[in-house]
Automatic annotation (TrEMBL):
GO molecular function, one term: precorrin-4 C11-methyltransferase activity
GO biological process assignments: methylation
Species for this entry: Rhodococcus jostii
Protein name (database record): Precorrin-4 C(11)-methyltransferase
UniProt KW keywords: Cobalamin biosynthesis, Methyltransferase, S-adenosyl-L-methionine, Transferase
UniProt similarity note: Belongs to the precorrin methyltransferase family.
PANTHER family the UniProt entry points to: COBALT-PRECORRIN-4 C(11)-METHYLTRANSFERASE, SIROHEME SYNTHASE-RELATED
Domain Tetrapyrrole methylase: from-to ranges: 2-208
Catalytic EC class: transferase
């Protein structure tokens, strides 16, 4: 039997892969990450499935349920918001399953930052402007950042900066990024990306904090900072250039 760690996407029930939908529909046990997973997606669970909200469970309790299902010969759809590879808390579950000899598979999903970029109508890697994206977060009392991964250090590259889980610390984000990006650098915040209650805020590092506070955005948001958000006059990509030699194979 297998535990499937599934990326349930940023919020819209139809922003999941066909593979994820198929696995959910066939799994007799489903564990999902509270309000972050849309109820419409849970409706895909088969009739009689055991569906459990893990929002109030500890790590040990969650893993015990996964092992229990495996022992009973049942596949498990373990739903996480966004994509399991980014800020998902999958690593510690996987570590325990490996120690217990439980098989698992990871099914990728749509991460929140790509849904946010789609809502903004912007590519985050624009020729001649930025070809790199930094995915990061800010330090909190519960989880400190490793040495050298503070926003000031990461911002020295000038790459497109994507900050997860940090809307409640927007003043800190602005202060730490302004040093390298400048007050006039374009900035945006997208909360609840792809959902009906989505909030999209656009501005600069000088104005975005006030917008975030006025909108009451404190969580489930992505902060994006970089010149790509207002890029104009950039060169066309070589990908579709008329000068590029093409073959028929």
């Amino acid at each position: 039997m297998t535990v499937y760690f599934i990326g349930a996407g940023p919020g819209a029930a139809d922003l999941v892969t066909v593979r994820a939908q198929r696995i959910i529909a066939a799994s007799p046990v489903c564990l999902y990450a509270g309000s972050l997973v849309p109820q419409e997606l849970l409706a895909e669970c088969p009739e009689g499935a055991r569906v459990i909200d893990t929002a109030r469970l500890s790590l040990d309790e969650i893993v015990a349920l996964l092992i229990e299902a495996d022992t009973a010969g049942q596949d498990v759809a373990r739903l996480h918001s966004g994509d399991p590879s980014i800020f998902s808390a999958v690593a510690e579950q996987v570590r325990r399953l490996e120690a217990a000899g439980v098989a698992y598979t990871v099914v990728p999903g749509v991460p929140a930052f790509t849904a946010a970029a789609a809502s903004l109508g912007r590519e985050l890697t624009v020729p001649g402007v930025s070809q790199s994206i930094v995915l990061t977060r800010v330090s909190t009392l519960s989880t400190a950042m490793p040495e050298g991964e503070d926003l000031r250090s990461l911002g020295r590259s000038g790459a497109t900066m994507v900050v997860h889980l940090g809307a409640h610390r927007i003043d800190q984000i602005v202060e730490e990024l302004t040093e390298n990006y400048g007050r006039d650098c374009p900035a945006a915040v997208v909360a609840f990306a792809s959902r009906p209650d989505e909030i999209v805020l656009r501005g600069t590092l000088a104005t975005i904090a006030d917008q975030v506070k006025a909108a009451g955005v404190t969580k489930t948001a992505v902060v994006i900072v970089g010149k790509v958000l207002a890029a104009e006059g950039f060169p066309d990509s070589y990908l579709y250039s008329a000068t590029r030699e093409r073959t028929t194979h």
